[in-house]
Amino acid sequence: MTERHMRTGVVGTGHVGLVTAVALASMGHEVVGMDSDQEKVAKLKDGQVPFFEPGLQDLLTKEMESGGLSFSSTSSEAVIGSEVVFISVATPTRSSGEANLVAVEDAAKDVAHHAEGSLVIVEKSTVPTGTAHRLRSTLRRERPDLADELEIVCNPEFLREGSALRDALEPERILIGAESERAFATMRRLYGPLVDRGCELIETDIATAELTKHASNAFLALKISFINAVARLCERAGADVDAVADGMGRDSRIGPAFLNAGLGYGGSCFPKDLAAFERLASRFGYQFPLLREVARINDEAVDACAEKVREALWNLENKRIALFGLAFKPGTDDVRFAPALTLARRLWSEGASVVGYDPVAGDNALQEFPEMEVVKDPYEAARDAHCIVLCTEWNEFAELDFERLKSELTYSIIVDGRNFFDAQRLEDLGFSYHPTGKPGF
Ligand code: UGA
């Protein structure tokens, strides 16, 4: 067994918490991942990752075998003996749009209860600005005896599902918001292995770190909605949105990332964070309607795709529509706020029957929308369908045998919600092809 640098607890083993725990263990720390969901902990103790994330299973197995990573359903095991404890519990959306922080408060109380002395408590969950302030009061109330020993740090995460491990182990930046030199020093030590490999550590006050996270996600969502609005315009003006994005993106002030037009964004972060950011702004007395407009344009992206299907098929009643890709993005089995499922519901409510295929997210999709049929093979999905809609751009869809697909389909129609397919090739094969934001469609 190799010697481990720092003992660290991670409370909450969802996507962010588990990736954080595994990444910290692989940096050489001794990590205890804690979750109140006993069933999940039983799986983790057994070495099983409860969701799909490329590379995570292998690294988790390796770190558990080397003794650097363990799991528990009791907070004391994550806290006692640790120098740092991360709080990475869920912050779901309330009906008002605000983040529900009950789990964060409960986790902080629990950590405080077991704290034995000096401890850095890290906000890893995405929380509104001002949460650290609240947490500090909570900790002081819970443990007045440790008022000067319990430090709050905000260390937002910027990892993306599907490439979460790489994002955690080779981050473009690590953001640390803290108030004392002691807390900064602890976090520098914790992330030392990444800093040694050239990763940049940014140190700010806590409110700045909290706000940077929401501002980053909101800005990325803004880029997506901007290009989707441009796509609507391109369709009317006879221009090509991909070429426009390319022309814009070559300006280093703009950059090419997150300018892929299509069905828009989904997932557990952008929709929730945008709503929470708007609520936060309004709580501080600042109206930020731009954020609502970003969300509106995102909804419009699904409407526009549904309209293409209607346009291609005329009546949707008695039509069978095959959705290719159900996850909110490739590389994950997460279907939360997946545009594919919003589209599926829309088409189904208008009378179409909907069949879906996804390399990994099929079961989750079926749970979310049981009215849909889910099959295990793209050719089976195409069988007797009147139209294919590409919703999630999994790489394997580049390898499809289109002649075979055509022979399975009732009508040879493809609506491309991600501009993923080669238009010329499909047209040469006799498909009626409908991409997003291109002339003539
Ligand atoms: C996002 C951020 O990218 C991460 O930095 C952040 O840490 C994370 O949220 C979080 O707050 O936890 P994630 O939601 O996993 O990560 O996925 P993204 O790669 O950002 O994609 C979000 C959505 O935008 C997907 O539905 C994707 O299909 C869509 N998208 C992305 C587009 O429609 N067009 C693009 O050009 C890029």
- For the report, how would you describe the main beta sheet? 6 strands, parallel
List bound small molecules: uridine-5'-diphosphate-glucuronic acid
**Unreliable runs, pLDDT <50, ≥5 residues?**
none
What is the β-strand count?
Answer: 14
Q: First CA to last CA: what distance?
A: 61 Å
Q: Identify the overall geometry.
A: elongated
Class inferred from helices and paired strands = alpha/beta
User: β content, as a range?
Assistant: 5-15%
pLDDT average, as an integer? 95
Number of helices: 18
Radius of gyration: 24 Å
Percent in helix? 40-55%
Give the spatial strand order of the biggest sheet. Answer: 3-2-1-4-5-6
Structure characterization notes:
This protein has about 450 residues and is α/β, with parallel strands linked by helices. The protein has helices at about 15-25, 40-45, 55-65, 75-80, 100-115, 130-140, 165-170, 180-190, 190-195, 205-235, 240-250, 270-285, 290-315, 340-350, 360-370, 380, 400-410, 425-430, and strands at about 5-10, 30-35, 70, 85, 120-125, 150-155, 175, 200-205, 320-325, 355, 375, 385-390, 415, 430-435. The strands form 3 sheets. A 6-stranded parallel β-sheet has the order 3-2-1-4-5-6, sandwiched between helices. Strands 11-10-9-12-13-14 form a 6-stranded parallel β-sheet. Strand 13 (about 415), helix 18 and strand 14 form a beta-alpha-beta unit. It is elongated and about 75 Å long. The N and C termini lie far apart (about 60 Å). The model has no long low-confidence stretch (mean pLDDT about 95). It binds uridine-5'-diphosphate-glucuronic acid (UGA).
